[in-house]
Amino acid sequence: MIKQITRRARSSTTNYSMSNVEDTRIAVIMVGLPARGKSLIAQKVVRYLAWLSISAKAFNVGSYRRADTPQPTADFFDTSNRDGERLRHAAAEAAVADMIKWFDNENGVVAILDATNSTKARRRWVKQRCDANKIETLYVESKCDQEELIMANIMEVKTTSPDYKGQDPEAAAKDFRNRIRNYEKVYQTIDEDEKDLTYVKLIDVGGQVIINQIKDYLQSRVVYYLMNLHIKPRSIWLSRHGESNFNLEGKIGGDADISVRGEMYAKKLPELVENSVGPDQKLTIWTSTLKRTIQTARYLAASPKGYDKLEWKALDELDSGVCDGLTYQEIADRYPEDFRARDDDKYNYRYRGGESYRDVVIRLEPIIMELERSENIIIVTHQAVLRCIYAYYMNVPQEQSPWMEVPLHTLIKLTPRAYSTEEERFKGNIPAVSTFRTKGSTAKHQ
Length: 446
Ligand code: ATP
Ligand code: F6P
What we know:
By secondary structure, the chain is α/β, with parallel strands linked by helices. Helix content is 43%, strand content 15%. Helix 10 (260-274) crosses helix 11 and helix 14 packs across helix 15 (383-394).
């Protein structure tokens, strides 16, 4: 019985979040000169979709090319180099063939073909292959001619690429610049002749966005996500609320006040935050609508730095339904089957009359979108919600995310970098109970 409930809950949630995506097959075809952020965009889209339980995979043609030509020099990319042309085409063929196999064999939903696809002929060829296999195509062009930004991109990610392993960074940067020049000779931006294609052009990192012929819901979600991305340096701080009176009693849910020690953490929070935000940097505080997060953020909100503050219902703790206000021991006693079912599949288990982690992720989607658009944000929220947000940034698999330990009275700073997110933790050094429960235990918080 319990299993059935869980299964039904899962499919209804999927339908609610992304209508019939199971029937959709979309190849997102990246377009653009080297060092325009195509791989970064591809990786982010995969991470975002995977977080939403949509099967997604990037196929990087550069990795296929490296199998035969691990360390090419710029002239390899000159179109008058016949060997280079042949090997490059073979790499694109291999990536497209694997992509099609992935759709067929693994029920893939969104594939990203991460290559320059910089000529009209190449784009037509990819479209024909996809059309023949009933795969929709969405072209995403990143166009940017800001020389300074391109040089910074080269220094940030290209000099450390496997293409230049063991080489002097200055020489690597110079060679990469020449590689771009070779591409520039033949590059054709998507234009009027390609009006029949579904595409989005991101010009100057989203400064201007041109959208053409978007066809369905999932395509529009991907495009909306892309429109919100930016590359300005910034961080996201995450903190749970200070210890609450419910935490002290081992009870879950509720809307309790913070404890005396929770209050000490609230007073400490401005110092913890200000030590890691630059002196002239802006910061916006987001809390849930529950008392314990608002109380925890109140000294920070009153800081002379004049931080803005926003309360979000979407940041409220996972709703534990009929179990709200109970201890884990009480849940195990009153609803033993539910207790076991939750341990068996914590991500998908939905409390009677409440939510699952999967439900929380879906309601957090607008929060993630807003976070992508924003600069420095501190989020004061709850254990389950923090796990879900953290899982998005750190790419934590669904089986693991609900079991992550996120202690009270600890500030987590996440800084998105080109291909990863950097994490730092700052302890408040104020004692608190641990609310972490391992699988199978009913341990009271201590
Ligand atoms: P290549 O064709 O060599 O694989 P690429 O286009 O995939 O290059 P990335 O490796 O993704 O380029 O480059 C990452 C760099 O691009 C990062 O430094 C990132 O800050 C920057 N970047 C991200 N998005 C954009 C964008 N829309 N325009 C320009 N640069 C961007
Ligand atoms: O115990 C604190 C708390 O925030 C509860 O209110 C919430 O139900 C629980 O953590 C979520 O953690 P878990 O999913 O591990 O039960």
